[in-house]
Model the fold of this input.
Amino acid sequence: MKLTLWTYEGPPHIGAMRIATAMEGVHYVLHAPQGDTYADLLFTMIERMNKRPPVTYTTFQARDLGGDTAELFKDAARSAYARFKPDLLMVGASCTAELIQDDPGGLAAALQLSVPVLPLELPAYQKKENWGAAETFYQMVRLLGKDYVLSPGEKRKPRPAGLPPSCNILGPTALGFRHRDDLVEIRKLLRQIGVRVNVVAPLGAKPEDISRLHEADFNVVLYPEVANSAAQWLSKNFGQPSTKTIPIGFNATRAFIEEVCTLAQIHCDIDELTKRSRARWYALSVDSTYLTNKRVFIFGDATHAIAAAKVASQEMGFQVVGLGTYSRELAREVREAASQYGIEALITDDYLEVEQRITELQPELILGSQMERHIAKRLKIPCAVISAPIHVQDFPARYSPQMGFEGANVLFDTWVHPLMMGLEEHLIGMFREDFEFHDGAAPSHLGHGHQRTPANEASVASEPAPVPEVAVANGAPVTESVWEPEAQKELNKIPFFVRGKAKRNTERFAIERGLPTISLETLYDAKAHFGR
Amino acid sequence: MNRVIPLQSGAAACDSQDRAILKERGQREVFCGLTGIIWLHRKIQDAFFLVVGSRTCAHLVQSAAGVMIFAEPRFATAIIDDHDLAGLADANEELDRVVDQLLTRRPDIKMLFLVGSCPSEVIKLDLSRAAERLSKTYTPRVRILNYSGSGIETTFTQGEDACLAALAKEIPRHAQDHPAQREVDLLIVGCLADVVEDQFSRIFNELGIESYAFFPPRRSGDIPCLGPNTRYLLVQPFLTETARVLDDMGAKRIPAPFPLGVEGTEAWFVAAAKAFGIDPNHVEKVIAPKRQRANLALERQRQVLSGRSIFFFPDSQLEIPLARFLHRELGMQLTEIGMPYIHRQHLAEELALLPAEVSLSEGQDVEKQLDRCRNYRPDMVVCGLGLANPLEAEGLTTKWSIELVFTPIQGFDQAADLAELFARPLVRRTKLAA
Done:
């Protein structure tokens, strides 16, 4: 048993849902109790998707346990198949259903449906979300690709002369951190290089597309957590090599282009492609001098954490004082990366351990997930999000990739904004005693600057009541009303973000009616009068 | 075992029993009882909720809570792993270790709830024995209770019921043995926002009912004491188990509609006043100005909502009182009202106020219910978070039901706020279409 306040990853069936939801023509029948349907809101609310994930839950209850939950599963699978007519049916169990051992794979096979069925064994008490996504994708690629596997000793046929080189893009899923935008950026880059994209998977792919993966010359692996095992299988069975560089940051994007050119056996003018990039110049510009050796702590999924450390160190001029991941599957890679900065990697899925390390290190900037954002808030340290798990605001409406040259621009902006600007820092040094420009002042722009301190909260709560100068007796109009202590107390119970408005409205209401004092009743009369 | 006794007499009961209710059994798109932790941990301010469950439970609670709200939540999960599944003796030792770790980290915690989940139920981990065992170690510093919020046993707001039922068992019955605790004539049962509690307190005082307490208390040490004639009033329609515990202790329920809307709130207070033999003229004198003010505030929303049709997917158990309010006070047309389950006895007064022709459904088969909803094409759909955006994308206007649980909506001064929650999506759609 492990005590967890927050978790970095969901259970493995959430990973499977991310694959199913990313694709078209796929439906997932999940043997699961009532309540596991919460997972839908990850997609419909956090990712703001306009359709439900293609998942049917059996939602068994306690009273079913003595009876036939297997029959319940078969009914659910049968009716989901009839209703959604998928080209491929995924079946599996969530953690509770795993305990009752109904074998969804076997039960689905017994239904003899006329589409391929992918049975998923995802051990919920050992494995987690990213593993579940990788395993699901791998099993699907195997199932749909097995008929095209090269015989032992058979060589890949050379690409016919005159055809441009082609690749698959592997790894983007639903609920991925900026996967949608990264994909646009990388597709554009590949087109500029002159490489054709055969299939993108799983995002947007149909089962028939998965069976065409073998047609490409090589694979571009964007998110190793999801795509590595499938890419390895494709390499072994179809002789398709895959890219290793993750194109996050200016330097890595250049390296990625070189790697793609090598695999595609073509040449391209990298300098021409990089001409439009701003991040590099911004980092060199004089206002960025203040970024030098800012101490940064980085934690996230392995792919984003390793990439962020590289960018922070080589492209921003930060000092990486901490680097870690919750992706145990890629712990070795993260340890290697950390050793380059002379530090020891933190490999853990325990939020409390990460908090402990950050507290010890007291960095000036945290690059992490939604969980590190909590920690940063508690410790009052600026923070930017670089990795899942994420929040609805990390699915911005604007185009905001992490990868490619535009991605590098986005990284520059989002990492630098939580910090004070260069000139701002100088002013604080210069006007140290100024009441508006002291060390404790927050940056002047959004992000950390929004934080409310106990001091300013108190000033809203207990603004001095206006002095009762109102001469009601002589008939002069009331120009100010005094808050009775009880009413003032009641006002303070109103959430701070509407309190100011409630206060103003009530005072206006009281003055209009010539009330010298504001009582509880006045407060609620005004509330009823104005509504919202 | 079902100890709910069907009502034998009374117009309300007959009415509710004659209604045809569509009972469905299929995929249910509702939260499980664990989700109640999200408001319970804020309501009882020195309590901590430890879910004994799987990674899914941890993920559910944090996703449903919106991962950003509380940097230091007063809930956590003891995640069961494959080592625990090997043998139960180990699981108990493991649980003790986790509780120790937790209470060391949070010395301010005075009450700890061990919350059962689907996996802990299926592997038959006995949390009531664990709570007893741990209580021996931590009494008097921390009280340790347990309840189940599992999805195989409970739906959404039933988690609050299960929690309060566990807490109700802690209520002392005889004041002489507990001189420190206050004996009350009236217990107001169910979670309310603090601001609503304060408003209700003032009204009870004005009515002349002075010996009362709210349950759950804001701090775990303030549990009141039952007297020989204590009566209780439910503020929520989902407190079946809690009511049963109180009944068994000899407290008497005051039957009433629920305090939603002006009419419901008035009826709720009137029922209380009647139970305590308060002069109806005095009651009218207290209530009339509040009723008048609330009706005035409702007028604006009535203009938006009147004549619009509404469909409820089952979610919080508040559906029937809400539908009653929206229909009778705001003139909305009811299509289907879905409920996770219908407690006929607690809802008798509410059902009597609903028009006879409305469709009621209990349980859920979400796909079939979606078909019916699309068929009705209502002006507004009330549903959970999983369905709201997909329905909006189909051109339907939705009200996500979670706000109805997290927002102060009970009482006279909140009636217009409640109506506004329904008006806002319609106003917004009009604004964006313009």
